[in-house]
Write a structure and sequence with these properties.
Blueprint (H helix, E strand, L loop, with lengths): L3 E13 L8 H12 L11 E2 L10 E13 L3 E5 L6 H8 L7 E6 L3 E4 L12 H12 L3 H15 L14 H13 L5 E4 L8 H17 L3 E5 L3 H7 L2 E6 L2 E6 L1 H11 L8 E3 L7 E7 L7 E2 L4 E7 L6 E10 L4 E6 L7 E2 L4 E7 L7 E11 L2 E15 L27
Parallel strand pairs: 2-3, 4-8, 4-9, 6-7, 7-8, 13-20
Antiparallel strand pairs: 1-3, 1-5, 9-10, 11-12, 12-14, 14-18, 15-16, 15-17, 15-19, 19-20
């Protein structure tokens, strides 16, 4: 394990649906004896794949099956996948909250985990008291907590309420305090589940910055689970995609995010449109992304390419309407804004290019129309759909943290 701080070898986790235990006291005793002797569970059954959308005749389900990966010191590993893919189960096993059914985990150093909002917090205790309680649960000594108490309180932003019982805290305040404690534990491995979604944009930005400092500055390892692909892209150096308890993909963050978006049915990127009729003018429309990554990012180049089949001497224009999920048009593009429009030629390629994509993170769809003179001859609704990932639009070294406007614009600020 030279340079490797965490190694996961053939980890699997099986659950029994409904009842807990084998069903009889005798069989439960046999299972207990096997576990004490370090042998395999005698009642371990084949079970079914963990697909919650399907019925199964088996009482056993594999939440995880044959998971293998290694993490190097200072690496930030992203774990992504749809709900029920096994992400939280994997993190609970790594944090030793639950034991794997089969497989082994080898790690070097202390592991701190932030899996659920307020885990280890007593609602009757004050924020200050819960810092000591939660810190002790995570393995910190009282002296260690006391030496970092001011830093923890300052990072959480809850100083005014620190001596108030946490039952009066909002969920956002609770997760702020919980993350502050875990982040200042200075573990060799920090495990973070999708709890930062509870915090506001300002705290998410602060938390991501802290995790970057932990990994790059202190050389510590972070395992990060999130559905925010922008955060995964910004923070992680490598990513794993889980699907129904199995490793579907492992590789670079960009490749993993692209794979995830391609596989995610409810949020699928449809970047190519091809007409079903040869008589239609629009034969093909597709989105061109940097390096053909298939990822559309705020602030990066975005181009719409069109192939027109009909040969005609008339000039024409192409109009593009980009809509958000509330069906509000956020951008209108038209070749009529160019000097002369286009002259129609057989199998020509026409392009509308945005040097910097002004769309904030979110899901969008595109309507496209073709106009000859003043007559609209073709209109395709929902021609394309895509998801935009958060990016560094203003080239200031950080993601956009305020999405109060529909589009982003270049700005120039000066002081006389």
């Amino acid at each position: 394990m030279s340079g490797i701080i965490l190694k996961v070898d053939n980890i699997s986790k099986q659950y029994r649906l409904g009842l807990v235990g084998s069903g009889t006291l005798r069989d439960d005793f046999k299972r207990f004896v096997a576990r004490v002797r370090g042998k395999e569970d005698p009642f371990l059954k084949v079970g079914s794949v963990n697909d919650r959308s399907m019925r199964s005749d088996s009482d056993y389900v594999w939440a995880l099956q044959d998971i293998n990966f290694e993490v190097k010191r200072g690496e930030v590993l992203g774990i992504i996948g749809k709900n029920g893919a096994g992400k939280s189960t994997l993190l609970k096993i790594l944090s030793r909250v639950t034991a794997p059914t089969t497989g082994t985990i080898k790690s070097k150093g202390r592991i701190a985990s932030l899996l659920e909002v307020g885990t280890g917090f007593n609602p009757e205790l004050t924020g200050r008291e819960n810092i000591y309680l939660n810190g002790a649960i995570l393995g910190m000594t009282r002296a260690e907590i006391t030496s970092k108490l001011d830093e923890i309180i300052d990072f959480s932003g809850c100083e005014r309420y620190i001596d108030t019982p946490t039952k009066r805290y909002s969920s956002g305040m609770t997760v702020r305090l919980a993350f502050a404690v875990a982040a200042h534990l200075e573990p060799e491995i920090l495990v973070v589940d999708e709890v930062l979604a509870v915090g506001d944009a300002e705290f998410q930005k602060k938390a991501i910055g802290k995790m970057q400092d932990i990994s790059s500055g202190a050389g510590r390892t972070v395992l990060f689970v999130s559905h925010n692909m922008g955060s995964v892209q910004q923070l992680c150096t490598r990513a794993i995609v889980l699907d129904n308890g199995n490793t579907a993909f492992e590789g670079t963050t960009t490749a993993a995010v692209r794979y995830y978006l391609d596989q995610k049915k409810e949020n699928h990127n449809t970047l190519i449109y091809r007409s079903l009729s040869e008589n239609n003018l629009l034969q093909e429309v597709y989105v061109e992304t940097p390096n053909n990554s298939g990822l559309i990012v705020t602030g990066k180049r975005l181009a719409f390419n069109f192939k027109i089949s009909k040969k005609n001497t008339e000039r024409f224009n192409i109009k593009i309407g980009i809509y958000d999920q509330s069906e509000t048009k956020v951008i209108h593009l038209s070749s009529a804004y160019s000097a002369h429009g286009f002259l129609m030629k057989n199998k020509s390629l026409y392009t509308c290019e945005l040097e910097k994509n002004p769309l904030p993170t979110g899901s969008y769809y595109v309507n496209i129309a073709v106009q000859l003179e003043k007559e609209q001859v073709e209109h395709v609704r929902y021609c394309l759909s895509f998801t935009v990932l958060n990016g560094d639009y203003y080239d200031v070294g950080k993601l956009i943290d305020n999405f109060s406007s529909k589009v982003l614009v270049e700005q120039a600020w000066r002081q006389a």
